[in-house]
Model the fold of this input.
Amino acid sequence: MIINTYLREKLFLNYWIVPVLVVLLFGILSIYTLYLDTFIYELWLSDSAVFIHKDSAQAVLSTIAASVITVTSVVFSITVLILSIASNQLGPRLIPNFIKQGTTQFVIGLFIGTFVFCICILSTINPSTPIPHLSIILSMILGISCFLILIYFIHYICRSIQVEYVLENILKEFKQLINVELESQKLKYNTYENSYNKNNLPKLKKQVISEEHGYLQNIDLDQLLSICDKNNITVELLVQSGNFLKSNIVMFYIYHEESLPENISQDLLKCFRIGSQRSTTQDIEFIFEQMAEIGIRALSPSLNNPYTAILCLDFIAESLILLAQTDLPPTILMSKKQSSGLILSRTNHKEIIKKAFDRFRQQAVNDLSVSIKFMQIIEEVIKCSQNQYIKKYLLTHAKLLYEAQESKIKNSTDLSDLKKSLNKINKSLNTKDVTTV
Done:
């Protein structure tokens, strides 16, 4: 499932693949419709059965082709403009979220495909051949469809740059990661975690270094475990999805009893997919960083939009509530014989909360309304969480924010609102209130 998600993401992140596939499909469709036209002409039509003259057919096809290619240039211009706006207001790291949705690629592919279809049909019309009635009718249908889809595309673009829509898409990715990817890992591997005993690890150890640099986007755990079981080895990973790998750093250790196959290191390295950008396929921290980045940029002096920051906090709170109710996947994936398996480097709740809140909290100090909202969502997450460690980390962030505001706010009324929020958090955890901290 993780590999399927990764491949689907890579497909849509390459902006040219979908349009090319659609254009090829339309080229094949033009050949097929011309064949059907020939078949229909031979069976049912004659030279006298002409529903459209050749001059009119050429004029219709030329008009559709010219109109569609003009609209295609407009679509390209709109797309570049939207990506520029998104980069400036939401952050350059959010650009892949727009690209990989696939709607823009499909629309561009449809327009160019319609142009190619009309040109292919137009090239076959000459005085010595029958008129391809079916192909011309289909060209007219495609031309009308293109302009209807242009209306939808404008609606889609207007909606896609709204912060609520962007955050909702990020939240959907997080839910997919939690409900599908992480749950599937726990179901497949959790039964073996209790069989791990560090003293049972083989004494021989080999280190494997990275041969390239970039972000670790995906780890094929199934293939790694298969190689471990086949060669009776245990692999200890020192990196995790989302890490930026430098050349010649140690990625993992191989524990083994017997001599290793010559190509074992290369086989294991093939299970790691490295790219120039981070991916949300297995990287929980990156999802929270994206949400936090939108809010942080909203609080910058150039934008100064606290309402967007407050909206980001609501979505971060929803994600943290889901995370608090979910156990992270096991870090030890051992075989039943304890002779082979994986020791993984995984993130934990503390690191995820740190990524979501650290920079956001530092910027929230500059706006009292955002600080109060910050306290409120911490209280909401604590109420919904049964994990004492998560509650402890959240309380720490609440205290740090209050301490920063206490030295900055001169108005006692404003400070009392923040104090009330912190006292509610303390009471929910049965700790001392702010007056005695």
The first helix runs from residue 2 to 13. The mean pLDDT is 83.
